[in-house]
Design brief:
single chain; Beta-Lactamase; Arc Repressor Mutant, subunit A; 3 domains; five-stranded antiparallel β-sheet; elongated; transcription; DNA binding; Tscrpt_reg_LuxR_C
Length: 320
């Protein structure tokens, strides 16, 4: 029990001391010191008719190829279906034996060293979303004990809670460069929302009435995949993404007048706000000073300002 308490204290301390990009590795290493294993898989995803679909899980000493090769056999994974039906319960089993009904699944478990398994998952049947942690030992002779199964079952909700706190803190840091106009959220690479402020959901629903609290709207997600470094400008909101290996950080705000500027108008506005004269802007963009003046008149009217000083102030205020 002392080992578990020490693990949890260190785990929650790491939430504030370790960057999110390193947090899952740190947590898994802490767990391994108390509960030895050879490989691990920790991630989120969804359930469909064929079973579990993982969205870029964190892999510890496990080949990325194992994810691709799991896809054709996931509909035969009885252990996964059991975990889906028994949320929060840790399963302790010799996976090749549990896969005897499927030669392909049995071969898969042996090929990747997924022999002894401690597998825990939490499935939300209302949304179809899930989270899971799987620990593996690559030996038939090194079975996990019942005490280790109970330990993993006790640790699992803390791992999930600590990860959520780490994600939330990172989302807050992502917002710090902006101001109170922005709401924030975190999604996995499959579009499942891991964390979202109520105001973020409210912002989404101004653009997509009835948008889910648990997933990025399809139109927004398709935009993110097609243009991961470009903000989405909708009819009512603007959403700015930031991608990491396993997550998508999102911040949203109501659409503003500056969002209506064309790319060229925004270029001119930014250069003028930076202090360049009309002639300097014209030279930089290889256009005539008269064209710059025409653009600026249109920009002032569209944004609702009277001069370049007011325009510069609007730009400073709008930057994320």
């Amino acid at each position: 029990m002392d080992g578990l308490n020490e693990l949890l204290i260190t785990l929650y301390r790491s939430v504030r001391e370790v960057p999110l990009e390193e947090f899952q590795e740190q947590a898994v290493v802490l767990l391994k010191a108390l509960l030895p294993f050879d490989a691990a898989r920790w991630g989120s995803g969804i359930r469909d008719a064929q079973g579990v679909v993982f969205h870029s899980p964190y892999l510890y000493n496990d080949s990325p190829d194992s994810l691709q090769e799991y896809a054709p056999v996931r509909d035969q994974d009885r252990v996964a279906f059991y975990c889906l039906s028994n949320p929060g319960v840790t399963v302790n089993c010799y996976l090749p034996e549990q896969s005897r009904h499927s030669k392909a699944l049995e071969a898969y478990a042996l090929r990747y060293g997924h022999e002894q398994g401690l597998i825990t998952g939490f499935h939300n049947p209302q949304t179809g979303t899930l989270a899971s942690v799987s620990l593996y030992r690559a030996s038939k002779a090194r079975a996990f004990s019942e005490a280790q199964r109970q330990l993993m079952q006790a640790v699992f909700p803390h791992l999930q809670e600590a990860l959520k706190i780490s994600q939330t803190l990172q989302a807050e840091r992502y917002r710090e460069a902006g101001d109170g106009r922005w709401s924030v959220a975190v999604a996995d690479t499959g579009g499942v929302l891991c964390f979202a402020e109520p105001r973020f959901i409210a912002d989404l629903q101004t653009e997509w009435p009835g948008a889910s609290e648990h997933a990025v709207p399809r139109a927004l997600f398709q935009h993110l995949l097609a243009a991961p470094h470009r903000s989405f400008v909708g009819r009512r909101i603007l959403v700015t993404p930031f991608f990491t290996k396993h997550l998508i950080f999102l911040k949203a705000r109501a659409r503003e007048a500056l969002d209506n500027l064309t790319h060229r108008e925004r270029e001119i506005a930014e250069l003028v706000a930076a202090g360049l004269t009309h002639k300097e802007v014209a030279k930089t963009l290889k256009i005539s000073p008269a064209t710059v003046n025409n653009h600026l008149r249109a920009i002032h009217e569209r944004v609702g300002v009277h001069n370049n000083a007011e325009l510069a102030a609007q730009l400073r205020h709008a930057r994320p």
